[in-house]
Structure formats: C-alpha cells, structure tokens
Amino acid sequence: MRWMMWVKRAAAGAALFVLLGLVACGRPTGGAGEAGSGASAPAEAPAAPGPAAGEKPSGAKAIGITQIVEHPSLDAIREGILEGLAEAGYVEGKTLQVDYENAQGDRSIATAIAEKFAASPLDLVIAITTTSAQAVKEAVTDKPIVFAAVTDPVAAGLVEALDRPGERITGSSDQTPVDLELDLIRKVLPDARTIGIVYHSGEVNAEAQLRATEAAARDRGLAIEKRGVTAAAEVPQAVASIARRVDAFLILNDNLVVSAADAYLDAAGEARKPVFASDPDTVAKGAVATYGIDQRALGRRTGEIAARILDGTPPSAIPVLVVRDTELVVNRRALERLGIVLPAALEAEVKVAY
C-alpha cells in the first residue's frame, strides 16, 4: 500500500536525520590540525559591551532637544544642529547622548517636555521654535538653554537684548526680513494690492511678524487681509474665507501654519491665488517664491553655539545669532501653472529652482 511505503520512507528519513546529528555532535570543533583530537578550540573572549540603547556613553555629554512640531524647515534646523555639534566633536551615540522630543504642535505637550528635561540630568537643553523655548525657559532653571527658529527672541521674552541674552540662555533667530518678501510680491505681481495672511493667533512669534508685515505693507501701499487660527485644521478654511478678496497670499515664519502648508496650498490653488512663503521648503511644496534662509546652515551655526557652551563658555558671553543672508528660491511649476512670468531682473537672482 502507498501509505505503508510512505511510513517506511519517513522512518528511513528520520533515522538518517538522527545519524547526521550524531556525527555532528562527535565532530571536533578545532581547526584542521586538531582533526580527530576531540579537543575544542578555546572560546573567543566576548566583545567589550557598549552602552545599552538609551544609555549615556561613558564620558559623553547629555542634551535634550524639544521641537514644537515636525515639518521640513524645523527638521532641517534640528539636523543642522546635530551636524554642528558633531563638527565640534560632540557626536551622537559616541560623545553625545541626545533625548529628542516632539510636541506635535501642542503647547501643553511642550510644557510637559520642558518639565521632563528640568528633572533630567542634562548638560544642555535645545529648544526649537518660540513656544518650545518659552516652555523650557519657564521650567528649566539650572541648565543652559539654546533656542533656534525664534523670529523675535526679545518680544518672546526669552532674552533682554540680542547682544545681552542673559545668564543661561542664548540661541539663533530665523527672522526673514518681511520687507524683502513684500518687495518680491510687488516685483512678481506689480498690480497686487491686497495680500492675505493666515496666522497663529495668540502666538508671540506669529503676531510679532504680522505687526511687522502690516507696517511694511503700509509703507508700500499694500493692504493686508488677515485671518487668525488656533489649530492647523483651521488653516484651509481660513485661506478659502479670504481668497476672493486678495491678490496673493504670504505665509510667514509661523510654525503652526507652515505645518499645514499642503492644505494651505491646496486651498489657495483652488482659488488660483499665488502663495509666497518665508521658507524654501514651502516653495518646494508649491509656493511660488521666497527670499529664504538656509535652515540647515542656520542649524549648524546653532549647533556651534551649543558646542561652545558644552565646552564651558557661558551663554551670556554668546550674543544671539541673527542670520540675514537670504537667497531667491522659486517653484517654476507653480509659476507656470498660474501663468506668472518672472521679470528678467529676478531671473538673474534665482539661486534655487524647483
């Protein structure tokens, strides 16, 4: 019968498996010169254990990084900070332990992160954005603080003055000159009269930029149509509500609004209104142009500040870094989609084009 033949073959296979196992057990484990001796080679010494995951490497410095929300510009700043630290000898996982926390756009989470860092044995705290920096300054009283991506550190109450930051806090500002952005709009759209701005109401950084933009707009004969929001989900509706009354939109260095850039651009696109930005990453997504700051380079220079403090320089001896170098970034696809042709003088200025 076939099933009896199958049983016999299975039994034979099992016997062969056992035989091979016995041979393997009796095989010497030494090299070729030890064949047949039955002696085992001495076991290799175990490698020296490295630090466990999350454990601080011996002799390393420990820092905390808090960021209000993740979007390309802020991520580029954070990556640049780590690059700047590494160039100074503070390499993550070797000579530097990094505790990174993202507040997911929530002020209460930013406060909880700051309180966690206040209770942690850190050598330095880095806060990316105004909201995170304000939370850290309030909670952390015994550690040096470095901030980044803060448009107006004085208005935010972080420092007394840019050249006299205070005993334990300093950092960098990403303030983009609003006059440059408005002049850019006038050059690209000479007939523009009203600019739409959606901003994070109640946030110091956003409101300071809005006031500066309104003042600069008055000097240029431009009107500002504004709408405040308190959550990213409100952005597209705010854009749609004023789209018919504006000639173009301008996105400020406003982290809540920038985090909703895709929805913002979609809403403006439906109304066929051009969007100008304050950062290159939003142009890459579909805004038409900006005079932007290289965020990664800003991060590297902020990392250099952090390294100097880890080396022993007090924050009070390091003035706030204000980067004023900008480059013209354009999105040719967005311009073409809206039928906009750049003037020849602007074409000659373009440094980055998408």
Automatic annotation (TrEMBL):
First and last residue of the signal peptide: 1-26
Entry keywords, A to Z: Signal
CDD domains attached to this UniProt entry: PBP1_ABC_unchar_transporter
Record bears the keyword Signal: yes
UniProt KW Protein transport keyword: no
InterPro entries from the UniProt entry: ABC_transpt-TYRBP-like, Peripla_BP_I
Start and end residues of each stretch annotated as Disordered: 31-58
SUPFAM superfamilies the record matches: Periplasmic binding protein-like I
Pfam family, one: ABC_sub_bind
Low complexity bias locations: 37-58
Protein name: ABC transporter substrate-binding protein
UniProt source species: Hydrogenibacillus schlegelii
Organismal lineage: Bacteria, Bacillati, Bacillota, Bacilli, Bacillales
